[in-house]
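TL;DR need C-alpha cells for one chain.
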Amino acid sequence: MHKVLIAVAALAVVLSPITKAGNTDRDRITDLVVNAERGDSSAAAALRAAGPTGLAALMERNRAALDSYRTGAQATGNREPADDQTRRLIEVIDSVAAQRDAAWSGLYWFTDLRSAEDEAKRLGRPILSLRLLGRLTDELSCANSRFFRAALYADQKVAECLRDHFVLHWESERLVPIATIDFGDGRVIRQTITGNSIHYVLSSEGMVVDALPGLYTPDAFLAHLASALQAFTSGPVPSRFEATPVVARRHQDSELRKIVYFRTTYGLTPLAGEGERLAQVQREAARPPPAAQAVDRALSKTRAEARVVRDLGSFVAGPPRHDVVDWNALAVRRSGFSPVSDVLTPLVRAQIRASQPTASESDLVETMRQFSVSMAADTFMNELELRPRVLRWIHDGGGLAELQTLNARVYDELFLTPASDPWLGLLPDSTFRGVWTAPAEESRLVTSR
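>> reply
TL;DR here they are.
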C-alpha cells in the first residue's frame, strides 16, 4: 500500500483510563465468569450487561484454553472444539461480545445506539458503528461483515485500536438474503447473495464524522481510524471527546484532497461532479437496480456471490459505464496495495483451511494470495470511488451528518440496495420464471413452513 495511505497518523488525543472496578465488583464478575463457564445463561447475560469489563474478565480467565483452541483451529480448520467445555466457552464469549468468532478478536459490541452513546460520553471516546445486512452474531451475515470479522477484527493491531480508543456498536440494516442450492442427494450449499456493510465514526452524540464503506486492508483501516480520531476535540474535564463541525469539516477537506491527489495519480476520472452523475443514473432508473450492480460495489464479496446472483437470473445489465476500472489489476500493479498472504490473520487462515480440507499447501497459499489481492482492490475502490461520495455528503451538510438520514442515502445510492425494494434487485419484474406462483405468494409459503 502506498506509504501515504498506510501511514497511521499520530493519535492526537488523550484518553482517560477506564476506572477499575472495586474488589466487590471484581469478585462479582469473577463469580459470573465461573457460573457462565458452567452453562448458566443468566450469568452470561449478566456478563453481557457488565459491558467490556465482563468480556475481558471472561477471556483473561480462559487465556490458555483460548490459545489452545485457536492453535487447533488453524491446524485443522475446525471451528468446533473437541471438548464440550471449550465449545461452551466459545458460545458464551460470542454471546457476551455480541459477535461471532469473538474468541479471536476480544471485542465487545453494543447493539443499542443509545447505550453506546452513554458509554462514549462516560469514557470520552468516539463510536465506531457498523451497519450490515444480517447480524454480526450470524455465521452468514453479509459477506463483507464476515470479512470484517476474519480479516479486520481478528487482526491484533486493529483489535487493540478498537478496544482502546472506540466504543463499538452494530445494527442490522435488514436481514441478508440466503440462497439454498439443494443437490437432492443430501448435499446443500447455503450462500448469501447480496448486501454490503459500512463503518461510521460517530461523536458521542451519534453524529457522523467519517465513514468507511466496504472492506479495507488492516493497515488502511487503521490509518483511517487514526485520522478520524483527529476530528475530535477534547472538551472540559472530565475528558470528553466531541466532534465539532469546524474540526470535522477540516478533517473531511484533508481526506478529499488526498483522494483527489490519488485519483489524479492513478489516471481516474475527476472527482468533481461524479457523485451527481452517479446519482442521476439512479434517478433515471425505472426500477430498483438489479442485484448485479450491488454485487459490483464490493469486489471481495463478488468472488463469493456473483456466480449465484447470475444463476438466479438477476444479472441484468445496468446503465452503461465508460469509466470501469480494473481494481484488481490496479492493486497488483501497485505492489504496496497487495498484502502478502502471510500477514493475513490466523482466523482467515483457519477459515481457508476449513473451506478446502483436502487442498495442498500451495493451493491454500494461492487462495490466501487471491483474497489478499481482492482485499487490496476493495481498498482501492472504496477509497477512490465510494468513500469520496459519502464524505461529500457529510461535508456538504456542514461537517456532521445525522446517522439514519445518511445511512439511508448510502444504501439507496451507494450500495444500490434501497429499502424501497424488498427483493434487493434479485427479482426484476420483467423476468419470466416459468412458474405459477407470484413472489409475494412464495414469500407467504416460506413464512408458513
